[in-house]
């Protein structure tokens, strides 16, 4: 066995001494060699291999320096992405984790002489959010991966859709309130006016009706020839009292009925609002419904505007669709899908809103307002009729 072969005691001792980090000033980046002391580094610098590497560096120093800088930055950001993707952390902590690998690219071989300069460079390039505090520099990784940007785009799209949906609901509520107020006025004021006509509408002389008034219980005689008699034996005072009583009773009944009805409708409206707030989600896919594929990139393969059955839901937003024509299985995001409305009398599933996950039967559609009338079957709300539910909230059952 030779003097310095792999399993000799000398070689083993050298490997033990070389473990861990050594002095940075005794490291040669061009040769990627770590020396243990000043004498060893001096001997290395005089070696033929080091001289050849330095000649290569002298021929194109800027290119080699930029290469080491790019490698250092890429490795540093990769560590940030893997270990501290969503956290705010001290720059020194990340750097200490980075230099744990003894084969890392050393900073003295890059264009940045200090860690502070490198951190400022990351902030100017927009790759990290940099903060200077009394405790030192803190950095936060800015995730610019294509997958993350896609998810952020989807999230912003869902937020916009939610805002549009809220505005739509507010408009519908205001419209219903105005309609209810108009109906309430039309059922109360005209009825009271029709029962008690104003005095100006009477034309007694043209009708030939004679009415006598009895004051203080006296007879119907008057010295000034104002003596009149009715055709009936009932006094006029009693007739008017009965009319007033009847009209007052009718008004009281209509007010009570409308008041009780409006209170019940108000309670039902409050219940609807609570259920709508609890069950309105930004995802609607569920197993067993028929959907239409609206993804234009799939048009080349013949799947555009084709129908399929949702067999499995993945992470709430992605569905495995079994096509009805050829039984092929696709994995499509819900934004690329559309609900299907069956014929009148067909079964549907309510996929979003107050009555989410309920089965219902389609009773009619309103193409002008893009809504449908359904009757819930089975479950807690069996028999309840929903007069105006949006197309997007119901879907045909397979």
Automatic annotation (TrEMBL):
Domain (DNA/RNA-binding protein Kin17 WH-like) ranges: 52-178
GO MF, one example: zinc ion binding
Cited InterPro entries: C2H2-Znf_KIN17, DNA/RNA-bd_Kin17_WH-like_dom, KIN17-like, KIN17_WH-like_sf, KN17_SH3, KOW_KIN17, Rib_uL2_dom2, Znf_C2H2_sf
Entry's Gene Ontology cellular component terms: nucleus
CDD domains to which the protein is assigned, alphabetical: KOW_KIN17
Keyword Zinc in record: yes
UniProt xrefs under Pfam families: C2H2-zf_KIN17 (PF25095), KN17_SH3 (PF18131), SH3_KIN17_C (PF25092), WH_KIN17 (PF10357)
Chief site of localization: nucleus
Subcellular location: Nucleus
Coiled-coil features, chain-numbered ranges: 154-183
Keywords tagged on the record: Coiled coil, Metal-binding, Nucleus, Zinc, Zinc-finger
Gene Ontology biological process terms, A to Z: DNA damage response; DNA replication
Alphabetical list of Gene3D superfamilies matching this protein: 2.30.30.140, 2.30.30.30, DNA/RNA-binding protein Kin17, conserved domain
Family stated for the protein in its record: Belongs to the KIN17 family.
Protein name: KIN17-like protein
